[in-house]
Amino acid sequence: MERKVKVAAVSYLNTKPLLYGFRNHPVMDMMELSMDYPAKIAQQLIDGDVDVALVPVAIIPKLKEYHIIADYCIGAEGPVASVCLYSEVPLHDIKRIYLDYQSRTSVALLKVLVKDYWKLDVEFVATNGDYESNIKGTDAGLVIGDRALKQRKISPFIYDLSEHWMRFTSLPFVFAAWISNKPLPADFITAFNNATGIGMGNIPAVVAENPYDVYDLTTYYVQNISYPLTPAKRQGMQKFLGYLMAAQPVS
């Protein structure tokens, strides 16, 4: 290849198993790796600033072309623990919801559940920084990632988005996948797929490398998150994308 493949990944705890195998792997000679939060990486992939990214699947309709290049994802077949609506009051007493600025997929999933499953009449409030302190009274908040695990100890009402998606559709959910915005060489894809799967067989080592006293990471990696991109997850992803396309205003 003339240049290295530019790869971007999320710097959350949930990506640690996917990134574990990259160190000292031959694929690192073929790529440059950068880290940031999901929405920012998504924009980089849309703009062509990177070639491959672990991105929220909600951006797929915004890409001119897309290729899923790995057999692993950030998915869930039940409660995911780290993508939740938090509240001090029961679901149907919520008046406003603060939206997490860090993920487009989670916001889009919340809006699908609010409209089509829970059928709530609420106001959505965009955020661009710390907003968790606003989760009080009838104001709820969507919180994702590591901050969501901390919020579990604070809010009395927790509505896990992937758990409710499963109840709604009977399908698992894919939050993020390794997606490229252009065709890539087959040898790179093979090596990349191999590297991203190594952590699946080394969960105890991943946990040991990431001391965390807020939530049990073995539970998180083994029970909450489901990493293999199975046919059922692809089916769930297509159903979710169908909701997104239906919600797009006609231009």
From TrEMBL:
Record-level GO BP terms: menaquinone biosynthetic process
CDD domains (UniProt xref): PBP2_Sco4506 (cd13634)
Keyword Lyase: yes
Enzyme Commission code(s) on record: 4.2.1.151
UniProt-listed Gene3D superfamilies: Periplasmic binding protein-like II
Keyword ATP-binding: no
Catalysis performed (reactions): chorismate = 3-[(1-carboxyvinyl)-oxy]benzoate + H2O
InterPro entries found in the cross-reference section: Menaquinone_biosynth, MqnA
Molecular function in Gene Ontology: hydro-lyase activity
Keywords, ordered alphabetically: Lyase, Menaquinone biosynthesis
Pathway(s) it belongs to: Quinol/quinone metabolism; menaquinone biosynthesis
HAMAP family in UniProt: MqnA
PANTHER family attached to this UniProt entry: CHORISMATE DEHYDRATASE
The family this protein is said to belong to: Belongs to the MqnA/MqnD family. MqnA subfamily.
Function noted in UniProt: Catalyzes the dehydration of chorismate into 3-[(1-carboxyvinyl)oxy]benzoate, a step in the biosynthesis of menaquinone (MK, vitamin K2).
Protein name: Chorismate dehydratase
UniProt organism field: Chitinophaga dinghuensis
Gene behind the chain: mqnA
